[in-house]
Amino acid sequence: MSGVTETVLRALAGIVGEEHVGVEPSALAAYAIDGVAPRAIARPGSGAEIAEILRLCAAEKLGVVPAGSGTKLRMGPAPARYDLSLVTTRLNQVHSYDPGDLTVSVGAGARVGDLETLLEKHRQLLPLAVPYRSRATIGGTVASGVDSPLRQMHGSARDFLLGCEFVTGDGTIAKSGGRVVENVAGYDLHKLFIGPLGALGVLTRLNFKTFPLPETSRAILGVFEKQDGALDLIGKIRHSALTLSSLEIIDPSLAALFARRTPPTEPGLAPCGPWLPATAWFVVAGFGGSEAVMARYTSDLERMAGEAGAAGTALVGDDKWPGLWGRVREAIPLLLDASPAATIVRASVAPSRMGEILTAARRSAERHEIPASILARGAGVIYVAFLPETAGEDVFGRLASAAGELVEAAAAARGYCAVPWCPAEVKSRVAVWGKDRADVALMRRVKQVFDPAGILSPGRFVGGM
């Protein structure tokens, strides 16, 4: 069933060292995808070692899935072939950091939380406030395309990723972009590596633009009886001169979840408590700056919330903001932990059409009798989590139907929708990557160029690539 022979294992040990090759069942299980475990694990310590490994795997026709700490392995379909898990956690060096130039270059295996700690010492930030903060690696974060609440101000990774080094499926070491903004020229090939789950190459080093850390940060909480009021406030903010760091809509179900649960990834978070009632829609508008800026933003946001018909507003200061921000950031693992068959749909539409998706989500949840929680970003990204209390064939069928309806609703709203997190039994019944894309043929040609043997994350990306 597998080409990972003793000869292959000896070759891997010769490349990375015997201590960095794993075949123990417990180690393999940690990198299983939908119950499918690799036959071996290799932990290379350099791009050159990764190149040797991939040349070996291409010759042996072994399926390879790049991974970091494994926090994103639940995303996407299981691989068609899964012989080797190529774990990049040893590539965790900070290669260069120039606070004056606002640039940093790090290995793909560096952890997001560790990099944040380093940047905070220099009053800077990288806007990758992604879930699994303490474990997620930089490479895995970029390769999975997971977004951040900070995209409201800074955009997604494609807006501040300056370049990267990577290894293609045939073992070629290559790079794209540069280390500083002035050096970025030519084709932005590095942007192809945002989101395809390692299907094009293995990231080894990434270069980012960093940003100044605000002097202080806080949020205004707008409380609304219905979603229309929350959307009205989002629209007013979008057409104002305010530059917010984050802008989120929380539905009553998610508010209840925030109030009673702590994300398993951040067990030390302060509780939200009764000040976040579970009967309202909330707009959480985060902002930062000097005290003068804080005062002006607070006044303007309270005024706009009143004009949108808010039942009330609250300033979320130092005592409450960390607990709420931590839950917004870690919403994905919190939601996945809340149900034995959690299914999370991600839709991206124009902000003006967010209401169509929110309404479709609530109707699908009611129609299929599945509890649902919603987190929507002001930039037009909406996460709908269907959270049944039990799992089973009937539940899986209803989940697939509900998710499929949202895929269709997003297409009708001229947007895009995928189902990045769901049980394997649901993945087999739903279009995980959404409706067929017009550019799939072009994407296949790109895949052929970067991975001619088709060994990298086979079957994990769009169109079974």
Attribute tags:
465 residues; 15 helices; five-stranded antiparallel β-sheet; eight-stranded antiparallel β-sheet
Description:
- The protein has 465 residues and is an alpha+beta fold.
- It is 33% helix and 22% strand.
- It contains 15 helices and 19 strands.
- Strands 15-12-14-13-17-18-16-19 form an 8-stranded antiparallel beta sheet. Strands 5-6-10-8-9 form a 5-stranded antiparallel beta sheet.
- β5 (94-98) and β6 (103-107) form a beta hairpin.
- α1 runs antiparallel to α3 (47-60) and α12 packs antiparallel against α13 (393-412).
- The mean pLDDT is 94.
Could you outline the blueprint of secondary structure elements for this entry?
Elements: H1 6-16, E1 21-22, H2 25-29, E2 40-42, H3 47-60, E3 64-67, E4 84-87, E5 94-98, E6 103-107, H4 112-120, E7 124-125, H5 138-144, H6 151-154, E8 161-168, E9 173-177, E10 201-209, E11 211-212, E12 216-224, H7 227-238, E13 246-250, H8 252-260, E14 281-289, H9 291-307, E15 312-316, H10 321-329, H11 331-336, E16 343-348, H12 354-367, E17 372-377, E18 381-386, H13 393-412, E19 416-421, H14 424-427, H15 440-450
Parallel strand pairs: 2-4, 3-4
Antiparallel strand pairs: 1-2, 5-6, 6-10, 7-11, 8-9, 8-10, 12-14, 12-15, 13-14, 13-17, 16-18, 16-19, 17-18
Helix pairs in contact: 1-3, 12-13
